[in-house]
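Q: Here's a chain of 292 amino acids. Please give me its 3D structure as tokens.
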Amino acid sequence: MFSSWREYYILCKPRVVMLMLLTAWAGMYLGAANPIPWWLWINATLGIAFMSGSAATLNHIIDHRLDALMDRTRNRPLPTGKLSLKAAFIFSAIQGSSGFLILYFGVNHITAFLTLTAAIGYSAVYSIYLKRATSQNIVIGGLSGAMPPLLGWTAVTGQLDPEAWLLVLIIFTWTPAHFWALCLHRFNEYKKASIPMLPVTHGIPFTKFNIVLYSLLTVACSLLPYAIGMSGTFYLISVLFLNAGLMLYALKLQFAVDVHDNRIALRTFHYSLIYLTGLFIAILLDHHLLIN
């Protein structure tokens, strides 16, 4: 029984959902003019988590044949047959409908429909079409994964304010370099599966150059919260250190002598996760310091 629940848990991509929730909480606290009611915080968190888990489960269903071809994903519950497609679909439907109802009745209508749009964008538009259609799949499809700060913001304000979109922009510019680093590490697997990721379609050197460019773009966007007075000195100092690390890894990857040495790519991917987590923790702590 425990093993079965563990497989369902894996379908939700919990580490991805936790990072999404962190960015959603940042949006909530930065958007709130008054203390957030406990019931609103819980409803927003549960609703976003359930709908994100539902979209992740649908992604597992859509990609189950593709996952079986790649070492990174071949041991997931659906390729191994530990769970059936029917069970996974029912699980996704329960999560999605529960999350939407919680957001619709327990938060507000705009957050419910925005979250639904983001879930459809990831599980359907990206997973079914973009992933297999263009090397710019992660650039275009990355908007869905960048939405959680806006969802958190609208949960407490009910409005689509520019500051919330700025938080979305940071994640949107961060996503391509983050994912392309993983693609470089798993280059042979993506090539074998015939997925048109940038390294496969345009080559490794071109991808490395684009990682540098998008890292620079992320650095520029990360400074905007301080530039518009949305955050203070603590955030600025923190993000400058984080940005230094981001550019260091991007440049080390760019100038690596052995283009087929994917260890640097993996370290770059791991640091990008630390980067985004650290940035949103810093902006949350900075907001708390500004209030006090």
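Q: Can you summarize the key feature?
A: The two ends are 48 Å apart (CA to CA).
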